[in-house]
Design goal:
By secondary structure, the protein is an all-alpha fold. It has helices at residues 25-31, 36-45, 48-79, 84-112, 122-154, 156-292, 324-342. Among the domains are: 25-154; 245-291 and 301-342, no CATH class. Helix 3 (48-79) runs parallel beside helix 5, helix 4 (84-112) packs antiparallel against helix 5 and helix 6 (156-292) runs parallel beside helix 7. The protein starts with 24 loop residues before the first helix and ends with a helix.
Length: 343
């Protein structure tokens, strides 16, 4: 018997005290409603159709019990080590089952066929005899199964020891595996804790770097703002420089124009000075001639006529205003001349 099979043995049975075994001859007689002797006389006294019906009913019950017995044999085969006896018993049971099925089909054909004029009473008796033979085979098969179960019970202690040793070995192996798993989980927990600490330290470092980067960004933003203000002031200064350059160009053009006017005025002043000097000379000469000449008022012939300078053109620029001392000197110098002319 293999250790993997079901170690549960078949319950022991006492041949004298146990009830009728399912599938046995006594059980069939009890299931049919009485003893075999009690059922033979009424069956022989009845007609052939009633005997056939009774035989058909017994055959059906036998088939039903054979199915149950076949299930027990299948379970016994699963529990046992598939000995030759059990296999042969199973084959015999299959043959019996096929024989009962054949008898049932023949009984059905007889029931469906028309009743013959001459009814024989030997056919039901033959059917019952065949059933008794089949029941005997079933009883023998059941006894063989029971003996096989007793052999299985003999090996129960050994199987229990094997199961216990297997259980203890499996328990020890499971305990070792559990301890190994606990150690592995503790190692993994320590590794995860270390990784968590490293991750926390790395995160703090990254946060510090982020804070530094933010401060640097704010500083750069301030510098960019200062540069923008400087650029704006530079643009304003450039505009102012451009305006100043334009103003300098305008003043330079005006200075050049004024220089031209100043040069012309200086030339005119030079001409006026020369004319004034000439007039003074002539006035002095005239004054000398008048003092030496007659009193009739005739002008000497050698006194030249006074040449008066022409006034400047209307479009000419006005001469520069003379200094106060120069104007006084001019007035003093011109005074005697005018006086002489009036005189």
């Amino acid at each position: 018997m293999s250790p993997t099979s079901d170690p549960t043995p078949l319950p022991p049975e006492d041949d004298d005290a146990r009830p009728a075994k399912p599938g046995g001859m006594q059980w069939l007689v009890q299931a049919s409603g009485g003893s075999l002797e009690e059922r033979d006389e009424p069956r022989l006294s009845r007609g052939a159709p009633n005997d056939l019906v009774q035989a058909f009913r017994l055959n059906a019950e036998a088939l039903h019990r054979l199915e149950a017995l076949q299930g027990e044999l299948a379970r016994a085969v699963q529990r046992s080590d598939r000995s030759e006896l059990v296999l042969q018993s199973t084959q015999a049971l299959n043959e019996t089952f096929r024989g009962l099925a054949t008898i049932q089909r023949s009984l059905l054909e007889r029931l469906e066929a028309p009743v013959a004029a001459k009814r024989s009473r030997l056919v039901p008796l033959a059917v019952l005899g065949l059933l008794l033979v089949l029941v005997g085979g079933i009883v023998a098969l059941t006894e063989a199964i029971r003996r096989n179960g007793e052999m299985g019970r003999i090996n129960t202690a050994e199987i229990a020891r094997e199961v216990r040793s297997s259980f203890e070995a499996g328990h020890a192996e499971g305990r070792a595996a559990r301890e190994h798993d606990i150690e592995r989980l503790e190692a993994e927990a320590d590794l995860a804790r270390k990784r968590s600490q490293e991750t926390s330290a790395l995160l703090d470092e990254k946060l510090d770097e982020l804070a530094l980067a933010q401060r640097a960004r704010r500083a750069l933003e301030g510098e960019n703002q200062d540069m923008a203000e400087r650029v704006a002031r530079g643009q304003e200064a450039a505009v102012a420089r451009e305006l100043l350059a334009r103003e300098v160009e305008r003043l330079e053009r005006e200075r050049m124009a004024h220089d031209t006017v100043v040069q012309r005025l200086e030339k005119e002043i030079s001409d006026l000075r020369a004319t004034t000097t000439d007039l003074r000379t002539r006035l002095g000469d005239r004054a000398l001639g008048l003092s030496d000449g007659s009193d009739d008022g005739t002008r000497p012939a050698n006194v030249p006529n006074v040449i008066v300078a022409e006034p400047p053109a209307p479009d000419a620029a006005a001469p520069e205003a003379p200094a106060p001392g120069a104007e006084a000197r001019g007035a003093g110098e011109a005074g005697p001349a005018l006086t002489g002319e009036d005189h």
